[in-house]
Amino acid sequence: MAGWFRPVGTRSASVYWRRRLLVTAALVAGLAVAGGVVWLNAQDRPTAGSDVTPAAVVKVATHTARECAPGFLATSITGSSEMKRGSTHSFTVRVTNSGAEACRLTLESRPLTLTVSSGSDRIWGSADCDAWGLTGDATIEPGGTQEWKVPWSAKRSQSGCRLAGGTLGAGTYVATATLTDVPSARFVFALR
Fold first, then answer.
1. Residues 102 and 127 placed together within one structural domain of the fold
2. Checking CA distances to 138, which of 23, 29, 105, 117 falls within 20 to 30 Å?
3. Which pLDDT band, with edges at 50, 70 and 90, does 30 fall under?
4. Are 189 and 78 in contact (CB under 8 A)?
5. Which of 35, 61, 87 is the C-terminal boundary of a domain?
6. Model confidence at 61: pLDDT above 50
7. 150 and 118 in a common domain
């Protein structure tokens, strides 16, 4: 410690004191810069209860799937080719994305409906009751498919979730899946 207070060397004492002052000033400046960086980073972070969204979250949110373009969507429908009158049957409605990117299908803005008809006679429709409808949002990967199972009681429907009494007659029926701005898919089946 004696060398700190009384400089030892060939130069004058003022040279050593200036060097010490310069090193001390550089050390204080370095600590001030480091403290400022830490303080600024702490200011950028949201506190508990804050409604500020961190930049990383915003960046991820901007890369979500876009709404599906109708030109890249196709509908299909399957079920049993022969069904028994008076019992409940199930159809599977599928929407396939043929695009190169994942897309978001929002059925609230682009309704998907299923109807059953015999010739020009409309028998049943999922649009007659929200509980029967095909609902929800889905992100469909490129080449991927989203599917919905739709039960049908083999009875006529009316708006307001009403089913007509009685049993439908034997014959050929057509189930049609319709998605706004996309060609409809048809499935022909028989009631026995």
1. yes
2. 117
3. confident
4. no
5. 61
6. no
7. yes
Residue 25, pLDDT score: 81
Residues 42 and 74 placed together within one structural domain of the fold: no
Same domain, 130 and 153: yes
The mean pLDDT value of the chain amounts to 83
Higher pLDDT residue, 66 or 61?
A: 66
Identify which has the larger pLDDT, 67 or 49: 67
Rounded CA-CA distance 22/38 in Å is: 24
Q: Do 174 and 125 share a structural domain?
A: yes
Q: Are 106 and 155 part of one and the same domain?
A: yes
Q: Are residues 44 and 82 in the same domain?
A: no
pTM of the model: 0.64
